[in-house]
Protein: Acetyl-coenzyme A synthetase
Amino acid sequence: MSDDLKVYNPNPAAAAAAHINGMAAYEALCKEAETDYEGFWGRLAKELITWKKPFTKVLNESEAPFFKWFEDGTLNASYNCLDRNIERGLGDKTAIIFEADGGEVTKVTYKELLAKTCQIANGLKAQGVKKGDRVVIYIAMSIDGVAAMQACARIGATHSVVFGGFSAQSLRDRIEDTGAKAIITADCQVRGGKQLPLKAIVDEALTLGGCDSIQKVLVVKRGDVAVTMKDGRDVWMADVVSGQSTECEPEWVEAEHPLFLLYTSGSTGKPKGVQHSTGGYLLHAALTTKWTFDLKQDDVFWCTADIGWVTGHTYITYGPLALGGTEIVFEGVPTYPDAGRFWKMIQDNKVSIFYTAPTAIRSLIKAAEANDAVHPKSFNLSSLRILGSVGEPINPAAWEWYHQHVGGGRCPIVDTFWQTETGGHMITPLPGATPLIPGSCTLPFPGIQAAIVDETGKDVPWGQGGILVVKRPWPSMIRTIWGDPERFKKSYYPEDFKGKYYLAGDGAIRDEKTGYFTITGRIDDVLNVSGHRMGTMEIESALVSCTELVAEAAVVGRPDDTTGEAICAFVVLKRSRPTGDEAKQIAKILRDHVGKEIGPIAKPKDIRFGDNLPKTRSGKIMRRLLRSIAKGEAITQDTSTLENPAILDQLSENN
Ligand code: WT7
Structure:
């Protein structure tokens, strides 16, 4: 960060009214955590969570890195998100404002959401689901989706939401890995005016093998897509809940009881089932919603993420509800019926806190610059007071536009760095405290011991880049990889750091003067495309699984103005290298194949064909060279270890 970078200080009046009302308050919290780490988290866990049986011990490190938090306490997440608000007098307050793809609005109060949740919970029990069972949820953004997650939590079943954009194959993999007893889905999802089937994809997944654990498929009716119902296995949700009581005693679970599994990509192998706890997770969901978004009783909060991702879990299903907030749940897409949809929804619903991804902002900037009618200036966005960004670095130009045109120059932007594994925010500004510098996620959340180290685990000085780690366990951290504790240890607590530090997988640098963090990107083979995380190996496996065509494939990322990163695949076919139209046709076949294996989000943007890939004499693919070619850069690296230098020219040709 150079001296000429602008600093945006909190507006004094807004800051004074904030939960964390200045840097002194922030520093006092950091100090409190430093002086008495367990005391700090224990205090907050008592203040933010209602426990059935209070915990007596905050942190158990005896089986590190398998840490346990609030171990002997019991609670229920849905009680904390629903009943408790009603007991506080918020029963008639709107919990969710649901806006459908076509614009219809449905609101539910806390009382109504609780009744719905209880009916689904009772229905699940009647279908044989009980504490400890896993339930896969494959459904679009809806009140039913949120209520289904809450219903699982209510009866102690562990949910695993699979994003509606994943293919039958990906869904199958997740069903098999979780060993789920039931699936909750819908006939279809509605996006951009189209009804896209969901139940048919579930049917296909269940024919792919390995899904014998599934006993029931519960189907919500959303549209009018025809579905086939298998006798004895498939049931309509309306029939499941019909006649069920609107009351259901919560199952009081231990704090460490797995609330959910959520699959995410790693650098090797198949996606990993990140296991989250109930107590520690819920604490951080509530706490970060309170401090990072400064959520208050009269706010209207809108997180645009899908419940299929962790952002939707923490900042739709759990955090805002745990605080008794009012939130928007949006079914559709930002560009339908036009690219003014977000701005219109903020205006119509008087949204005060808005949380979205840089990729969405970048694509809406393009649309707004081409057409005044979808520019934020054509809408009344005066209700906004805080903006958030998540999922990937936000480039300073997009930050400035978001700040000026969406936030009217008055709303702080919280650039929140975190991961599926961290459960909630790790490094982020607090809106009433932190001076903002575009492009930096600023400082660690109070209590989070983020640091930058070298390969040996030694701290690097400010101003020097390194590896982002977290030095102490925190309540909402990943507990294990479902069914694979060894992979958990290897991925997150590697021996390089003597198993002491949590390895985020990102590189970072702290500003020499301010100590502010900037995330410099993944240091493993994980790509971030439109804020979606994907392993290069997964995409390579999908490509080579097209056995009739593909001999070999290597996938790398390259920078992209809109999606952040784009997927670039280098492919060697079993037949001769195609060019021209034929290359285009085969590229389309391969893209569709990847779409079918993983989902449309994994389709490579560029596919380049070669007679071979650049390899060392020992046969290792030289990915750094592929990265340069993908970017269209001249190769300046040392290529002396390369077996077949001529291949570089061939791959660099535009084909
Ligand atoms: C990876 C985690 C966080 C929930 C959604 C994505 C990147 C995330 C930021 C940010 C720079 C960011 C990192 C991280 N990332 N937020 N504010 N600035 N990079 O969760 O799919 O688990 O991906 O997203 O590379 O490791 P995820």
Q: What stands out?
A: The first strand starts at residue 59 and ends at 60. DSSP finds 19 helices and 30 strands in the chain.
